[in-house]
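Bit of a strange request maybe. I'm writing a small parser for structure token strings and I need a real example to test against, not something I typed by hand. Could someone generate the tokens for this chain?
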Amino acid sequence: MKPILFITQKLPDQAVADLQEVYEVRMWPEEEQTAPREKLLEEAKQAQALWTMLGDQIDRELLEAAPNLKIVVNLAVGYDNIDLDTAREHKVIATNTPDVLTETTADLTFTLMLATARRLIEAERTVRNGEWQAWTPMGMTGQNVHGTTLGIIGMGRIGEAVCMRAQGFDMEVIYHNRTRKSLEEAQYAELDDLLRRSDFVVVLAPLTEQTRGMVGERELSLMKDSAILINCGRGGIVDEQALYEALKNKVIWGAGLDVFEEEPLPLDHPLQKLDNLTVTPHIGSATVQTRFAMMELNKEALKASANGKPVKNRVC
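Reply from user aminoacidic:
Good idea to test on real output. This should exercise your parser:
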């Protein structure tokens, strides 16, 4: 009998067809949402492999209820949804999708910087709603991007790719990271110094116990009142209530978010009321080419596990 693979959200047929050769593939049929928790727990009891999305919680409860489980492949570069310590206890391999989404996510990060600074979504809405009456000297004025100071929190691969893009805009780049790096294009700064000096603060750090709530009321109060915060890292790094207050009270000028503490962002969330906020639905890696490249990495790990070969891109 083939080992059982459960995929928690419907993926394109061409992405999973060849897995039928090595697995009995079971896949949740919905494209817009992952399998409910009860279904995931039910399938995990029999599965040897799980192909999961970032919203699936692979925690102690699930891992202890999955005696046959050998591998979890996560369709994301992040893996804060997986309890790695418990996975190690149960000798379950976990993998992610590094490297292939670096450039795409850097593109989206810079897109949010430009869109927020130039009030792009707000401006488009005035045209579509028939509110644009005439050119005015200060109408829809935003903030410069070219020649400003960019502060990057989390200088990993994506941070370095954003830094390279900033060179084309003649930006001064400073960064804060767990470890200092030898970079010609950017200078290290302590977090408080970075917040005070930057015109754009870009959050690209992973979500850990150390980074959770890293940008809160105190940190936002250190930023310039003309500054813009961008978060393409993880939602839990930025205190959203503190951000709401900072945006509402003009402590900072604007923000652009691709990630949130709760996803999807509820319609009644206070942030939804703000015009000086640009939001996107966690689309950092959302290009056709990148998503298929991510799936390919997951498939390689699944095939290697089924065939008893070394598994690449392990996080545990």
